[in-house]
Amino acid sequence: MKQLLLFSCLALFTAANLQPKPKKFKLPKAYVYVPSGTCTIAGESKSIQGFYMQATEVTNLEYREFLHDLQAQGRTADYKKARIRPEGWKLPGTYMEPMAEHYHQHPAYNDYPVVNITQEGARLYCEWLTEKLKADDPDAYVQVRLPVEAEWIYAAAGGKAGMPYPHGYYLRDSKGQFQYNFRVLGDEAIHRNPQTGEMEVRKNTDKRSPAPLNAGTFATAPARSYSPNDYGLYNTSGNVAEMLAEPGRTKGGCFRSTGYDIRIDAEDEFAGFTDASPFIGFRPVVSVVGKKEE
Fold this sequence. Notes:
The protein is of the alpha+beta class. It has a single domain, classed as paralog of FGE (formylglycine-generating enzyme), CATH 3.90.1580.10.
């Protein structure tokens, strides 16, 4: 049995540890501030400098704007690297052709998280957004990038040290409603193997009573779904797994992940991914050092 990642995150809300928000630099409203603090992963304490993070996963509309701008600039090589691979929706044993045809282009999906892109495409998006922000304010020291693992874990916890999920201990809220988009397995799907005595998930074969697949969504949910954590971040658990700065790494799980696998400290079920996937998107962070001295 693989050892699970253990962590605890503690925000230090003191004048000495908080990185002040730049007063003159204006970021898009889509970003929230994550204050400085410490994050402990596998017994090692890591210092986290304050940064901005997009409140949601990057959406289809935002990514299309980026692709259109690459085309307008004549950056053909970068466009080919960053392009969306809609064929990724055509999963074996499923009928997902409508998703492949409509998900990335139809206005109905504008506010859904972009998927089926490579990590190279996500990095190019971050570089492009860095250029745009600097064009708006040439004197600002700003970098848009993918978060490293410690930053992502710290931000996802929302200041709740040691909790498995962004909202605490449970998958449901006080009203019994699910707080995340993930694969819900009902009691009818759990089975004890009489030979081994182990609990297993049974494949549903009864078409009259299908086991529920997720918390009310066909696949992804809009990027601004459910409730944000205390830092204002939506869907850090579930919906789509989010790329990290570390190559081939993700965190958070996706709409097909079980409740156990969308925990903040869960092992990366997509570790080592190299291709675009319908289960993986991204959420950039912005480091702002300040402004040039006049």
